[in-house]
TrEMBL record:
<dbReference type="InterPro" id="IPR009061">
    <property type="entry name" value="DNA-bd_dom_put_sf"/>
</dbReference>
<feature type="domain" description="HTH merR-type">
    <location>
        <begin position="38"/>
        <end position="108"/>
    </location>
</feature>
<dbReference type="GO" id="GO:0003677">
    <property type="term" value="F:DNA binding"/>
</dbReference>
<dbReference type="Pfam" id="PF13411">
    <property type="entry name" value="MerR_1"/>
</dbReference>
<protein>
    <submittedName>
        <fullName>MerR family transcriptional regulator</fullName>
    </submittedName>
</protein>
<dbReference type="InterPro" id="IPR000551">
    <property type="entry name" value="MerR-type_HTH_dom"/>
</dbReference>
<keyword id="KW-0238">DNA-binding</keyword>
<dbReference type="InterPro" id="IPR047057">
    <property type="entry name" value="MerR_fam"/>
</dbReference>
<dbReference type="GO" id="GO:0003700">
    <property type="term" value="F:DNA-binding transcription factor activity"/>
</dbReference>
Length: 178
């Protein structure tokens, strides 16, 4: 169902507010199997385990596109934005990278997507496709280079901590001899 295209915006707002009311009152629950065309900021923040303030900040700094708004000013998030947020959180949690680095990765991935699209649109021109594949490879090499740099920094930090552990264990052995 294309909720945004089928109903006037005020009905969407009423529907979502009613759905929120039912959810907050415990009459219904949201499951991972349910799909909605749009979700409110509270629902998205609960679903992803982040605060509404974080969502607003990510929007402010350009990590996610501006949310749709109801006539009452409530933010509504589409599934594409929620998927992007999940990817941002994975990058942040798993790789421990800054928001600036996340922005760079997201831009690179968007560039890769655009290159793939242009590649398929130019199926008849091998010359254009060769140029696009080279561009694709360059973007990937840049991503790998940034990740390798991050990995080297983490390995260096780990090695320093490992050296401290070894010195401490040696010191502990010396103390036992006294």
């Amino acid at each position: 169902m294309d909720l945004l295209g089928s109903y006037p915006y005020v009905l969407i707002e009423l529907y979502l507010l009613f759905k929120i009311f039912l959810y907050k009152s415990g009459c219904i629950s949201l499951t991972n199997n349910e799909t909605y065309d749009v979700l409110t900021i509270d629902t998205v923040s609960r679903q992803l385990g982040i605060t509404p303030r974080t969502l607003r900040y990510y929007e402010q700094v350009g990590l996610i596109s501006p949310a749709l708004r109801t006539n009452g000013g409530h933010r509504l998030y589409e599934q594409d934005t929620i998927d992007r947020l999940k990817q941002i959180l994975r990058l942040k949690d798993y790789l421990g990278i800054s928001l600036q680095e996340i922005q760079e990765v997201m831009e690179a991935e968007e560039s890769l997507k655009d290159i793939r699209k242009t590649f398929h649109e130019n199926a008849e021109s091998a010359d254009v496709q060769r140029v696009l594949v080279n561009e694709y490879i360059d973007v990937l090499h840049n991503l790998i280079k940034k990740m390798n740099s991050k990995i080297e920094n983490v390995v260096t930090m780990r090695d320093r901590y490992q050296e401290q552990v070894e010195r401490s264990l040696h010191f502990m052995d010396e103390l036992k001899k006294r």
